[in-house]
Amino acid sequence: MPSLDRRAFLASAAAGAGVLPFLRFLPAQAQGRDTLVTVFGQTINSLDLHRVGTNRASYQVAINCYDRLVGFGAKQLPSGEMSYDYDTIVPELAESWTISEDGLAITFKLKPNATFWDGRKVTAEDVKWSFDRAVLAGGFPTTQMRAGGFSRPDQFEALDEETFLVKLDYPSKLSLPNLAVPVPFIINSAIARENATEADPWAMEYLHTTPAGSGAYRVTRWDQGQQLVYERNDSWVGGDLPAIRRVIVREVPSAATRRALVERGDVQVSFDIPDRDASELADRLTVHSTPIENCIHALCLNTRFAPFQDPDVRKAIAFAVPYESIFQAAAYGRGAPLWGGDEEIADIAWPRPFPYATDPERAREHLARSGFAEGFDVTLSISLDLVSWMEPTALLIQEALAPLGITVTIDKIPGANWRTVALVDKTLDMHLENFGGWLNTPCYYFFWAYQKDRLFNSSNYASDVVHDLTDRALHMPVDDPGYAPLIKEMFAHAIEDLPRIPLYQPALNVAMNGASGYEFWFHRQLDVRPLTGA
């Protein structure tokens, strides 16, 4: 993996404008109202979210091509932009549901006219097979299901063809919302079973490249590393039929190329654009810039790396980080600062500024008290899919730590490999991370990022106290008198132990030229279903 210095970074930025020959692979203009072209900078590495190692960019397939029992509604933000509504659950494959008085059973009635792409009726048996798969697949999907109280196949029962029962071990505020996230999608179990093997009972290899769903769109072409093509399913009953018949999703690594394409009108949507482009394009194109709920851009310190096992080393780095410079260079002031907060924890707002700020003298004091007073060498890893904010951030951290005797080498990792090495293997000593919790509570964020062995706990942080506090708070109603004290205690441990150092809360930026109907979603992927043409 190549190392990066300031000269190389500036050279690569200057070269960005020279990659416009890529345009010849794209349509010269939009192909009418029937086709919409989008671009983004990440790499889709699988069409099956349940597969181990599937990256975030690939989640869009589960969103656009598969249905869930329920979904989230939509709301208008104070800015006038549209967003998902966490507080409103709406039907998707289920036409109705009832919750027992004790909160331990949820019974869903399926829409009788719901069909898969091959015309077969969607049944409760398909839902059970899909839920069984999610809780047994392992890794991220299984842990995500567990967050809502779903952990075993015996919790799911097909009462008849159109009635599906979920049995809970305990009532939870997260159960119903957790069925609206991308993970519990409904698969055509007949097709999956036909392509399963004894070694692959859940048809992971087949569904990796060939989705089998009932969703609004189906994948008609996937050229890995280049493009994905969606075609509308005219028989979809999960919501209002989309206006766009065909959507082409292009992978364009160069931010400069993506900007040129959307400015010229060669594409209608450029998704997840850099903050700088969002700032400069806002007066010429429609630019949506939405703060990402429950999301933090953070510097993560892997506790398997000896220096980071020393609390004074972690605090030295926290006081050395040039927060304001990073916020301006990487975020162009968009989003919200997460440094310089009060030491007193008076509320349970999350994300929240930690009580650290740039203070070189305090950084030197902490390092002097540590077992690594003379400094050390460390690798800071970043993802090539996220260079727009990770590169300038890494360079500024590299410069800030050098006076302490901490020599930082920056490595760039291909986006398709990032999730495996950072989150599955957890082998990166120091790295940048941008986890955002799907369910909008602080305990849910801690469940993923601070509990031992969780996928997004890429620092390998292990605290029995924090693990227990999170378990106790996770399913408790937010208005329970015992909830806030648990959350405040969790915050205190995270601030003191510092396995991840918050930098800022990011915004998700989307530029549009010849399209409308964009809605922000917590999963940070493009939902193409509500989009319309010019």
Automatic annotation (TrEMBL):
It comes from Salinarimonas ramus. Its main location: periplasm. PANTHER family: PERIPLASMIC BINDING COMPONENT OF ABC TRANSPORTER (PTHR30290), PERIPLASMIC OLIGOPEPTIDE-BINDING PROTEIN-RELATED (PTHR30290:SF10). It is found in: Periplasm. Signal peptide: none annotated. GO terms for molecular function: peptide transmembrane transporter activity. CDD domains: PBP2_NikA_DppA_OppA_like_7. The lineage of its organism: Bacteria, Pseudomonadati, Pseudomonadota, Alphaproteobacteria, Hyphomicrobiales. One of its GO terms (cellular component) is outer membrane-bounded periplasmic space. Keywords: Signal, Transport. GO terms for biological process: peptide transport. This is ABC transporter substrate-binding protein. It comes from the Bacteria. InterPro entries: Peptide/Ni-bd, SBP_5, SBP_5_dom, TAT_signal.
